[in-house]
Write a structure and sequence with these properties.
The chain has 706 residues and is an alpha+beta fold. Helix content is 73%, strand content 7%.
Length: 706
């Protein structure tokens, strides 16, 4: 059944690809976009397709993607085609798709897609031309650093640093590799990428081995092990075995053969290692035998059997690269056993395989071994060793120089771009600044002209408003006093005089019918009573006449009204007291207005900020000074908070206008007292003995904390 389905799918793909299409053309039930997606899914998900079949589908998807007018979709499709072509080693499709991807990503400014294109190119070059791979990884790092990455893609810059470190380590640029790996770890920690943190610390351990800092290498390998428990369960076995092998190899390289033998023997007995990773198992067998040999084992038969078994497994895997190592181990063991002829043959076999697989490290170590084993050709082996060592050293130095040059050039480009960007920003900032300055100057000049025109009118309006407000207040107080006096006179007349006159009238009505001495006596008494009422009416008339000539205390009444209003709106007990002997209405108009406004502002401050229960307001006099005191029992405030608000600034301004002094006494939780002293007051005495009237607006006890 499965082959039939595969054939049908291939027929559908063939028909679709040979039908002229545009973005709106349909192939079967699918649009061009759907067709490309279907083919890409087949390539990535189907294990039944052969490499030629996958290449054919990728080629068709590539052709259709180029016809798309949707630039974003085109870029995304080319990125998938480039990656899939790389996975199946289809270099022809890969180079075409990757080149188009680079152009498409640049055209739309897609830094992520641009970075993916360089990443694919780096993977394409990493096994053949490490300098090109390094360049592409670095370009990918730059693009990813500029991209707006989300989710699992946020660590792409760190992955590129890790890949750059890998390339440098394989080229023996251990110092540069260490620097890139440390940078990668810093980023991986930021994104909490546990798997890559394991890989990075493991790589740092390998780098330290190359630098022959074996203690540091062990430290990094052990650090990598701490991340294994945070990795997906299906990967933990692989990572645990890998890092254990690296630790054992570190012990072997540091000549701690006892510890190396112990760890390799542990790995050799690990369940399922052969079935899960036969290549690593074969290496462990050979390493275990060699570390046992170096640790003093003379069971040569068992040792050689283990290495032979390892070689057999490598043959089955078609892996000749590692076999050179096995033949070198065999040569050393045979030489130790005294079989020098077979030892030399194994050494020569190791050299042959190392040359064939371009395993230069093993070739060097095998030549060095033969200089001691093959006495007859020792000089030739030594010369070959020296020449190869020099050649490899020069090649490694050249590659490392390329790495440094690539990094320097890209850093220069980045620095130049940053410099241009800063210069552009500076020019733009200067231009905007000049424009703002010009606009500001124009606005300031316009405002000054306008302000000069309005200033006089504004001051006149303020003066008129204050005068009008005072007139209204005075008129209201006059009306209120008039009504109060009218009510009092009405009550006196109604309850006193009218009642008595009604009684006299009723008595006289009864006496008119009598003419006896008693009636005459009563009439005489009533006449006296009428005389008394006449005197009482005269008294009331005199009082009204005197009151008409008395000045109504409008200023004090205004303050009382203010106090009453504030208390009713705040539920705070306010106590007002003032000197009754002073002619308050005789004060200068500016002093009355400013004193009223100051009192109003201070009461509002106490209500808003003091959290008090009682307020005391006192208008007193002492010789040539008028004292205004407002005191509350609120929370007070510290010295650092004094005189910050605009209200207190206004009070200061009014105090200065009157030539007065202004003092505030306040501590946290101890209430606030404001004292204002107004000098040079022309005081008028209405009574020879001054007295103080205390008006209590609410029935509450004031708490004096001063």
């Amino acid at each position: 059944m499965r082959p039939t389905i595969l054939i049908l799918l291939l027929i559908l793909a063939y028909v679709a690809c040979n039908t002229p299409v545009s973005d709106s053309t349909t192939v079967g039930n699918a649009t061009v976009t759907d067709s490309v997606n279907v083919w890409l899914n087949w390539v990535s998900d189907s294990a039944a397709l052969t490499k030629p079949q996958k290449s054919n589908l990728l080629q068709k998807a590539y052709v259709l993607s180029l016809k798309s007018s949707d630039k974003v979709y085109k870029t995304e499709s080319l990125a998938k085609i480039s990656y899939q072509s790389l996975l199946i080693n289809d270099s022809l499709n890969f180079r075409a798709a990757n080149a188009e991807l680079l152009e498409a990503a640049k055209a739309i400014g897609d830094h992520k897609a641009h970075g993916l294109a360089h990443w694919d190119l780096a993977d394409f070059h990493k096994n053949k031309t490490p300098d090109s791979a390094y360049y592409q990884y670095r370009e990918a790092y730059i693009q990813f650093s500029r991209a707006d990455l989300e989710g699992t893609h946020r660590d792409y810059p760190a992955r590129m640093l890790y890949a750059m470190a890998n390339v440098k380590e394989k080229s023996k640029d251990y110092v540069g590799a260490e620097q890139d790996a440390i940078k990668a770890i810093a980023l991986f920690k930021e994104f909490d990428s546990k798997e890559y943190l394991f890989n990075s610390y493991d790589l740092l351990g390998i780098i330290q081995n190359g630098l022959e800092k074996f203690d540091k290498a062990l430290e990094y390998h052990l650090k990598s092990q701490t991340y294994i428990k945070s990795i997906a369960p299906n990967k933990r076995y692989e990572f645990r075995i890998r890092t254990t092998n690296n630790i054992a190899s570190t012990y072997l390289r540091s000549k701690n053969y006892g510890k190396a033998s112990e760890m390799f023997n542990y790995l050799k007995q690990e369940d399922s290692l052969y079935s899960k990773n036969p290549k690593l198992y074969s290496r462990v067998l050979a390493s275990s035998a060699y570390s046992d040999f170096k640790n003093g084992s003379t069971d040569y038969t068992n040792l050689l059997d283990q290495i032979t078994k390892s070689t057999t497994i490598l043959d089955s895997l078609d892996n000749r690269y590692v076999q050179a190592r096995n033949h070198q181990f065999i040569a050393e063991i045979l030489a130790s056993r005294g079989d020098s002829v077979q030892a030399v043959q194994s050494g020569l076999r190791a050299i042959e395989i190392a040359k064939e697989t371009q395993n230069n490290d093993r070739l060097l170590s095998s030549l060095k071994l033969l200089t001691t084993l093959d006495k007859r050709n020792s000089a030739a082996h030594a010369k070959a060793y020296f020449n190869l060592s020099e050649k490899l050293h020069l090649e490694e130095r050249a590659i490392q120089d390329k790495f440094a040059r690539i990094q320097m050039e890209t850093d220069q480009i980045i620095e130049k771009n940053e410099s241009l960007a800063k210069r552009t920003q500076l020019l733009a900032g200067i231009s905007i600044g000049l424009l703002i300055v010009c606009i500001g100057i124009f606005i300031i000049i316009s405002q000054r002209i306008s302000n000069q025109r309005l200033k006089f009118n504004q001051k006149q309006q303020e003066s008129n408003q204050e005068i009008y407000s005072l007139m209204l207040a005075q008129h209201g107080k006059m009306e209120e006093g008039k009504k109060s006096e009218q009510k009092r006179v009405s009550e006196e007349l109604h309850d006193g005089i009218l009642g008595q006159m009604l009684g006299i009238r009723l008595v006289l009505s009864g006496l008119n019918e009598r003419d006896d001495p008693s009636a005459i006596e009563q009439r005489a008494e009533l006449i006296v009573k009428l005389q008394e009422l006449e005197e009482e009416i005269r008294t009331i008339s005199h009082e009204l006449s005197a009151a008409a000539y008395k000045k109504v205390h409008n200023f004090i009444l205004s303050i009382k009204d203010l106090v009453k209003t504030v208390q009713q709106s705040s539920d705070i007990a306010i106590h007002f007291e003032y000197a009754d002997t002073f002619d308050w209405d005789g004060l200068d108009s500016d002093i009355k207005i400013n004193t009223y406004r100051i009192t109003q502002e201070l009461l509002q401050n106490s209500v808003k900020h003091a959290k008090c229960k009682n307020i005391r307001v006192a208008f007193l006099k002492n010789k040539n000074l008028l004292h205004l005191t407002i005191q509350d029992d609120g929370i007070g405030f510290g010295k650092s908070k004094g005189k910050r608000g605009i209200g207190l600034k206004n009070i200061n301004s009014r105090v200065e206008k009157m030539g007065a002094t202004f003092a505030i006494e306040s501590e946290s939780s101890m209430g606030t007292t404001v004292n204002i002293k107004i000098p040079n007051i022309d005081l008028k005495q209405r009574h020879p003995k001054p007295k103080t009237i205390r008006t209590t607006v609410a029935d509450a006890q004031f708490i004096d904390k001063g």
